[in-house]
Request: fold
Amino acid sequence: MKFLGNKATAMPLMAIAATLALGAPQAGAQGLFDMLFGGGVRHEPQGEFPPPPKHKPKPKVPAGGGGGVKISSPSYYTYKADRLVRVDFSTLSAAPQPATPQDAAFVPSATGAAFHDAIAGLSDYELYAEPDIAKALIAYYSANPDFIWVSGASLNNRAQDAVRVLGEAASYGLTPADYTVDVPAVNSASSDDAAKLKELVRFEMSLSARVLRYAHDAQSGRVEPNRMTGYYDFPAKPLDMVGVLKTLAHTQEVRTYLESRHPQNAEYQALRVELESLQASAENEIVVDPKLLLKPGQTSPELPKLLSLIARNLDDDMGGTYGEILSRLATSEVYVPELVPLIKAVQVKEGMKGDGVIGPRTVALLAGTSKADRLLKVQVALEELRWLPSDLGSPRVFINQPAFTASYIDNGEEKLKMRAVVGRVTNQTAFFYDQIKQVDFHPYWGVPQSIIVNEMLPRLRSDPGYLDRAGYEVTDSRGKRIPSSAVNWGAYGANIPYSVRQQPSEANALGELKILFPNKHAIYMHDTPQKSFFKQDMRALSHGCVRLQDPRGMAAAVLGTSVDYVAEKLKHGHSTEDVTRKIPVYVAYFTAWPDMSGKVEYFNDVYDRDSRLKQALDATEAVRSPSS
Reply:
């Protein structure tokens, strides 16, 4: 598979609604807008585009104007797995034994004649497989009429290795039952050679079918992500199934080959290690109410449990400062003032604000999630990693939405990591990967149609000139600039034949720079005037784009230059600079993800995507289980 090819041909068309990273207007922002754009005193902008007025008059919308029409965000779908089909062996059974094999690489073995005799035993064999696997079986064995897994009258070493690998599927987060094969006891003495041969050829076909399923699942995953939601956008990862069987027929390294179908990156291996550890571990013996909310001065029987967990993980520095307090108040159910500095210190150490309030996030960090929840998150993460390239590339930019972070990674080292803001639950950031192309200094902001229609149009109907006052440009379909006040905005609904962009300024929604990786979701990384958002722990606050805490640092990293160079570029107004290296960017969604040392961290499922993937996996299991 080509690592960064033309995705336009491989990805299904999806709506691009609600994908630019713009924050929700804050309370009282209308008065601020009047000061910013109505001729009053200018202050630091608090919103990312002018909000609607507090008291909106009901405009008269002409017939056909589409008054309440809005552009919708992508949807989630009820996942439907491909139905299995019965493999049609009739064409294989009817095919004459070729004098000259169709496949030039095929060399008849001593069992070739036995195979030709054995295929008669497939006439009433009910083997079910995915349609592409069923097709590949017939194509391969028509061209190569011989056993892969049988030598003489016995199962060969290839078969034994393959069966062992399939039986270890759980170590990769897969379901062993999906790859189960009935192994015949054909090595024992038997006078019924015809019955033995029948068993052997049925085992041959069954094992080939399940090996192909395993190879597909290891390389691409068990579910097709783009069928789950319009927020998922991944190119196909084609698998030459006939080629897989050809390779296995000519190698003794079956295990090595099948294991090579899995992603070959450090993150996948770290998740496997975590999975093995979880499968062998006991459930947490200290269970804290995950919904606990405890403020200083309040009482809860859950507090001693948390204090016990803190004491268990206390390092030397924290122990020297807070050891005595913990020892003295270990059984206290009252959240006394003496404990507040301890809780704040623990929160700060874990990357939180340190407000001293014990809430669900603090509990999750200290007590962790249940074993079952962690198992699911790791299994989901392994599945999602199969949707990505096996080699993630270096250098690369990795954005993990549930962690609200963005990193620049090169040569196995995280050179840069920063807080990020991603889309709100109502304006979710898509999950996809692409290639970074350009850095835009002092950018224009091209307002997407979804925001024009859903959020600007209601005000424009009653105040058509407000874009002119707010520093926006309006152009028609021919690119001609026209005053916003000259447009009859009330005549339009979801289809507006005008483009709107915000000029570079201190008030620009994108701040001082943006980093582009062109995609159909119109998602990119950018600066923001709303710096306060980075102080929050839950940072799903934008319209879909990714806002960076340190945009200059990221721009310097992808350009292969210094922050000083970026600062100098910013002194000279609007400009662009191409990124000349191949740098993939992953706009990813992992609720379990290893840090650079291999330690797996867990995050909240902010968009509830794990449960949706679990539903898709369950749907796949339901299709496979009746005839597996």
Notes: The two ends are 29 Å apart (CA to CA). Residues 1-65, 98-110 have pLDDT under 50 and may be disordered. The CA atoms of residues 219 and 494 lie 41 Å apart. The chain has 19 helices and 22 strands.
